[in-house]
Amino acid sequence: MHLSYAVLLTLIILLVKSVTAQVDLDNEISGITRQTDTREKVASSVRFLRGGDTKDGAGNEVDNEEKGLVGDVAIKLGLKLSLKMNREPLHVLQHLQDSGNLMSEKILFAWLKYVLNYRQKMGYFMADDAYIVGTLEKFVSAEKLPALLKSMEKNSKLRTLGKNLQEILASKA
């Protein structure tokens, strides 16, 4: 047991040493010019981390960003906890929206998987296909809903549900 701690401590020290060695090396290299001919002036350009331009176009792309791994894990854990608490799918989706999550395909697919698990636990009659379509209509625009249901065919776990929901949506129209 003590040997593993000693090995771990040695590895950490070696990693810290290698990082500090690289920092010292970078300071020496930064003074060297990287251009072959320093007499010419090089035009500087503005580079953006997000798509957009200097006219505040970058701010419009924020809605398309992914929240990252932590957000995905938090959503999955929240859905598992909601399933243990037997929360209705409508309330779960409302909570996801109230938490500031955009109703993206990724979030909605996670919710639809929650609904399938909820059905297994509580029974089909608690969240039938008509209930799912009605709930989705409250949160997804009428223009985007058919595309969402069509994209469910690409997901093997949601394929049959997507086809059933498409039929119900078509019968409503």
From TrEMBL:
Name the record gives this protein: RxLR effector protein
Job of this protein: Effector that suppresses plant defense responses during pathogen infection.
InterPro entries referenced in this protein's UniProt entry, alphabetically: RXLR
Domains: entry comment: The RxLR-dEER motif acts to carry the protein into the host cell cytoplasm through binding to cell surface phosphatidylinositol-3-phosphate.
Subcellular locations according to the entry: Secreted
Keywords, alphabetical: Secreted, Signal
Pfam families the UniProt entry points to: RXLR
Signal peptide feature range: 1-21
Originating organism: Phytophthora lilii
Family note: Belongs to the RxLR effector family.
Principal localisation: secreted
